[in-house]
């Protein structure tokens, strides 16, 4: 980026100085140096004056762009956003995630506990105390468990 900045500054300085020289030459000297007629020399000076002013305006705009893109402009913005995001919002977000997860775990454990307390306990059928008829009914039902 620095190389581009220097190249643009050199180009603008060269065009600015060249147009200043051509613009300030007397018309007879310009006619002799360029081997042109008086109307062409006048036209060259007019174009040179216009190009000189345009180069000056472009240089002013280029200086403004350099000031906008300078580190001193972006550093406060970057520092504010990064500090705000990481130090303030990040810590607050992690606090909310932790507290939400803790409450979810507590309520999930209590829900599991209350659900287990509300249902009756199922116990397997004792094989010693049943008759063959109850055994076939028990096998046909498929569960093998009874309510107690």
Tell me what the structure shows.
- The chain has about 150 residues and is mainly alpha-helical.
- The protein folds into two domains: about 1-70; about 75-115.
- About 80% of the residues lie in helices and about 5% in strands.
- The chain is built from five helices and two strands.
- It has helices at about 1-25, 25-35, 40-70, 70-120, 130-140; strands at about 120-125, 145.
- Strands 1-2 form a two-stranded antiparallel sheet.
- Helix 1 runs antiparallel to helix 3 and helix 2 (about 25-35) packs across helix 3 (about 40-70).
- It is rod-shaped and about 135 Å long.
- It starts with a helix and ends with a strand.
- The mean pLDDT is about 80.
Task: Describe the secondary structure blueprint for this structure.
Layout: H1 2-24, H2 27-34, H3 38-68, H4 71-118, E1 122-124, H5 132-141, E2 145-147
Antiparallel strand pairs: 1-2
Helix pairs in contact: 1-3, 2-3
